[in-house]
Design brief:
The complex is a heterodimer of chains A (116) and B (112).
Chain A (H helix, E strand, L loop, with lengths): L3 E4 L2 E4 L4 E8 L5 E7 L6 E7 L2 E5 L6 E7 L2 E7 L7 E8 L11 E2 L3 E5 L1
Parallel strand pairs in A: 2-11
Antiparallel strand pairs in A: 1-3, 3-8, 4-5, 4-9, 5-6, 7-8, 9-10, 9-11
Chain B lengths: L4 E3 L2 E5 L4 E6 L6 E7 L5 E8 L4 E4 L2 E6 L4 E6 L8 E7 L9 E2 L3 E6 L1
Parallel strand pairs in B: 2-11
Antiparallel strand pairs in B: 1-3, 3-8, 4-5, 4-9, 6-7, 7-8, 9-10, 9-11
The chains are: A mainly beta (116), B mainly beta (112).
């Protein structure tokens, strides 16, 4: 069992749908991350939140909208996605927003997203 | 942008053998980390080595770091079928970035 919980595990949606991915951690971590991972590829960073504030946006299209309601929760709101957005979306957290220096990231098992 | 490059891309060995994976990176780093990813699961942190360290051990894992060559290796000794997974190195960027940049990964298959 992982300490970072992501829901749902699988999501199929049409290009006109609006859906949200959720991530939760109760380790007291103050940095949280969203990654996108395509098959047989490494994770690619999308967003970083430090102390509930967005600190890094890796030029992600606006059809992906992150939200951090509190220090334990991270959401990714999806709207008007494209078929190429089909991927595994991973959430991670680390102890301090001082950066990932000397600190591992803890990953959830991801949401497998398919866009029809 | 990609920082780390692992080789080999795929490695198939028999149970009990040792597995060695290599990672090269391009820019100066604060630390290098290795992660494992089982099929359909998230990444699991294995070991972190700081830029001023040369070698680190954790159970059956041994990691080396050569900052002059900008390379690292991960050795798994006495491999088990349960070690079958993809292994990624990840580096931060010296200067305080919150980013971790992952290499392409090595797919390890341990045959029973």
């Amino acid at each position: 069992d992982t300490e970072v919980t992501q829901t749902p595990k699988h999501l199929v949606m049409g290009m006109t749908n609006k859906k949200s991915l959720k991530c939760e951690q109760h380790m007291g971590h103050r940095a949280m991350y969203w990654y996108k991972q395509k098959a047989k590829k490494p994770p690619e960073l999308m967003f970083v939140y430090s102390y509930e504030k967005l600190s890094i946006n890796e030029s992600v299209p606006s059809r992906f909208s992150p939200e951090c309601p509190n220090s334990s929760l991270l959401n990714l709101h999806l709207h008007a996605l494209q078929p190429e957005d089909s991927a595994l979306y991973l959430c991670a957290s680390s102890q301090s927003p001082a950066g990932s220096r000397y600190q591992p990231q803890h990953f959830g098992d991801g949401t497998r997203l398919s866009i029809l | 942008s990609q920082q780390g490059e692992e080789d080999p891309q795929a490695l198939s060995i028999q149970e009990g053998e040792n597995a060695t994976m290599n990672c090269s990176y391009k820019t100066s780093i604060n630390n290098l980390q290795w992660y494992r990813q089982n099929s359909g699961r998230g990444l699991v942190h294995l070991i972190l080595i700081r830029s001023n360290e040369r070698e680190k051990h954790s159970g059956r894992l041994r990691v080396t770091l050569d900052t002059s060559k900008k390379s690292s290796s991960l050795l798994i000794t006495a491999s088990r079928a349960a070690d079958t997974a993809s292994y990624f190195c990840a580096t931060d960027l010296q200067g305080g970035s919150e980013k971790l940049v992952f290499g392409k990964g090595t797919k390890l298959t341990v045959n029973p």
